[in-house]
Amino acid sequence: MLFKQFNKLTTFNHIRKFATQVSQFTPATLHLKSGQSFTGKAFGADKSSFGETVFTTSVTSYTESMTDPSYKGQLLVFTTPLIGNYGVPLNPSGKDGRYTPEMFLESSGIQCSGVIVADVAEKFSHYEAVESLHDWCKRHNIPGITGVDTRAITTILRDQGTTLGQIAVGESHKQSPEEYFDPSPINLIAEASTKEAYTLNEQGDVHVAVMDFGSKANIIRALLKRNAKVTVLPWDYDFYSARDNYDALFLSNGPGDPRHASVAVENLAQTVKEWKKPIFGICMGHQLLGLAAGLEAYRMTFGNRGHNQPVLALSESGSIKAGRVYVTSQNHQYALKLEEQFPDGWEPFFINCNDSSVEGIKSTDKSGKQIWGVQFHPEAFGGPLDTIDMFTDFVDAAKKGKSI
Ligand SMILES: NC(=O)CC[C@H](N)C(=O)O
């Protein structure tokens, strides 16, 4: 009986194929500023693109990674060989790309500048898929390259560090080093952030302000799920002056170098010192919180991007148990410096078990003020949900502090 059902399911008539075979695609070359080139086939948009070449070890969730605004300005190498096999779902978004409950992926469109894969799937199948990875990239004007040795590319990036690159479609012209476009001097946060404030779930129990540095949709979902009223604010919004309207402050993830956001850091420094209500920062939000606390940020060699990064909790707080290792989802190039002496009022909260980088900071304030920053993504999508209860801790702290 079961076998019959299985057979029915595997008739494969639900599997769809590209109209054009990969073998018919235009040749394309990935050039790295460090001198190496890899030739394969182009898919997606028929155009060349520049970016910072970074790799992710995530096995699933190419659609979520590609729509994560933290990947802005980057050419994303997937170490998992087969990418595209479950296609791309429908992804409605609100006015000006804003979050709406119908949004399925992490933002309204593809955020990275290009994708590099070993083997783009010509066939795709998923009950929610509406198009192929190739068609989706084409529609968003983003090029991809397939048929290249992503193991060799990753080894180069691990050894030499994140390198500028170009996906050159239909040409094999090698760039001279000064021709590479470098996104690192640009304030990408300003590009990724909402331009105007907007509110979701008016009837929520507590009012949370989200400083939008390029927020992933799942952060907003995680807050709404816990029945918070959420106001999404532009990255340079003067939160300090408006703080009395809110029960808690959330600092989102975001693209690029945190040191470009000095306006946000100054604003935060004042808030952190004087406000008594909960503050929670993730990735970029954590880095900005650290800068506001007086720590320094630095650029890592190749960063951490993947869904299996182990972090050790150094102390207890809310749902987090001291001495436990949590497996986390990550996507970052910058980190806070691990100072021997942390600034007054702060302590490290988590440490990465692979490279000992700072994975979290926490306020030591004895008055009950709750401030956490984490380098990883508790909301994941994709990735493990080991630390998802930090959102419950945060919203509960906001409820408790409502009357302060
Ligand atoms: N996911 C993020 O928020 C990334 C933060 C920052 N852009 C970095 O690369 O470190």
UniProtKB/TrEMBL annotation:
Pathway: Amino-acid biosynthesis; L-arginine biosynthesis; carbamoyl phosphate from bicarbonate: step 1/1. Its EC number is 6.3.5.5. Keywords: ATP-binding, Glutamine amidotransferase, Ligase, Nucleotide-binding. This is Carbamoyl phosphate synthase arginine-specific small chain. HAMAP family: CPSase_S_chain (MF_01209). It comes from Wallemia mellicola. One of its GO terms (molecular function) is carbamoyl-phosphate synthase (glutamine-hydrolyzing) activity. Pfam families: CPSase_sm_chain (PF00988), GATase (PF00117). Belongs to the CarA family. Heterodimer composed of 2 chains; the small (or glutamine) chain promotes the hydrolysis of glutamine to ammonia, which is used by the large (or ammonia) chain to synthesize carbamoyl phosphate. It catalyses: L-glutamine + H2O = L-glutamate + NH4(+); hydrogencarbonate + L-glutamine + 2 ATP + H2O = carbamoyl phosphate + L-glutamate + 2 ADP + phosphate + 2 H(+). Residues 26-168 form the Carbamoyl-phosphate synthase small subunit N-terminal domain. It comes from the Eukaryota.
